[in-house]
Write a structure and sequence with these properties.
Blueprint lengths: L11 H34 L1 E3 L9 E2 L5 E2 L13 E3 H8 L9 H12 L8 H8 L4
Antiparallel strand pairs: 1-4, 2-3
C-alpha cells in the first residue's frame, strides 16, 4: 500500500459551477462579436470636417496647414464633411469625392495633421486602429 494522497473528487456543485462559467464565457464571445462589427460599421460612418468648424474660413495649403482665405496655391474648404470610408480610400491612394488629385492630397494632409480636441480627430484616429 502507498501513502500517496488521492486527488479530491469534484463535487457535483463544483462541476455545475465550471459548466456555468464555460457557458457564460461562450455567451460573452457570441455577444462581443456583433458589438465589434457594429462598432466597425459606425466608425466607417463617422465624418471629418475639413477644416473643423472653428476654423471654417481658412483655406488648406498643399501640406495640410491652414492659411488665410485667398492664399495663393491653397484650396478653399470643400463645404462638406467627409465620411470615414471616403477618407480611408483617399489615404490609401484614392481621391476624396468631388476633389481633384491636388485638392484631395491637401485635404488628406490636413486630416493627417488633426490633433486631439479638433473636430474629426476621433474619427480619424479610429481609422488608424487595426480591425480584428
Amino acid at each position: 500500500m502507498t501513502d500517496e494522497p488521492q486527488a479530491p473528487k469534484a463535487s457535483p456543485q463544483a462541476s455545475r459551477r465550471a459548466l456555468m462559467l464555460g457557458a457564460a464565457s461562450a455567451s460573452a464571445i457570441v455577444s462581443i462579436r456583433p458589438a465589434l462589427a457594429q462598432t466597425s460599421a459606425s466608425v466607417m460612418n463617422c465624418e471629418i470636417p475639413v477644416p473643423d468648424p472653428g476654423r471654417a474660413g481658412s483655406y488648406i495649403a498643399a501640406d495640410g496647414s491652414l492659411v488665410p482665405s485667398g492664399t495663393a496655391g491653397a484650396f478653399p474648404p470643400p463645404g462638406v464633411a467627409y465620411k470615414a470610408e471616403d477618407v480611408k480610400r483617399a489615404l490609401n491612394g484614392g481621391t476624396l469625392p468631388g476633389a481633384d488629385y491636388e485638392r484631395s492630397r491637401a485635404y488628406t494632409n490636413y486630416i493627417r495633421r488633426l490633433q486631439s480636441g479638433t473636430s474629426g480627430f476621433t474619427c480619424f484616429a479610429s481609422l488608424q486602429m487595426p480591425r480584428g
